[in-house]
Specification:
Strand order of the largest sheet: 1-4-3-2
Distance between the termini: 32 Å
Largest sheet: 4 strands, mixed
CATH architecture of the largest domain: Roll
Number of domains: 2
Number of strands: 8
CATH class of the largest domain: Alpha Beta
Order of helices and strands: EHEHEEEHEEE
Helix content: 10-25%
């Protein structure tokens, strides 16, 4: 068996609308599909009783990468301990942008949380990490 691609990355949020504002308005993702899901198959698949979840697929403008925003109505999502970049867990995902400085200025203007100002790596890329509205770490890269 060989993996074909990564289908999407799921991000649990307490507000799809708040997350759409962040991912679409600040980072430039495009909304593609929003639905409310429930039922026995979903509850069984997720291992959650009487699961009801609002989902929204967003993608990069070229459609190559997708995120699935998930807002659980039942059971309500619980905040977890903060993840750092060296946690034993899924720690972050990375996006490539045209201008790291442009994104960083938006992040500063909106007083969003970030780890440091952009730095130039040994390989020549400009990189910084920020946190979304639900504290998910995002690596922002300009190659």
């Amino acid at each position: 068996m060989q993996v074909k691609n990564i289908r999407h990355v799921g991000v649990v949020t307490d507000s799809i609308e708040k997350s759409l504002g962040f991912y679409c308005d600040i980072l430039g993702f495009v909304k593609s599909k929003q639905v409310k899901e429930s039922g026995e198959a979903l509850s069984t698949m997720l291992g959650l009783n009487q699961c009801i979840v609002n989902t929204c697929k967003i993608s990069t403008p070229n459609g190559d990468a997708k995120l699935e925003l998930l807002e659980f109505e039942s059971p309500i999502a619980q905040a977890s301990n903060e993840v750092s970049v060296n946690s034993l867990n899924l720690t972050h995902f990375a996006i490539t942008v045209e201008s790291v400085n442009e994104v960083f200025l938006k992040v500063q203007d909106l007083k969003l949380s970030y780890i440091s100002a952009p730095v130039k790596t040994d390989g020549g890329a400009k990189v910084f990490f920020l946190r979304d509205v639900n504290n998910v770490l995002i690596e922002v890269v300009e190659e």
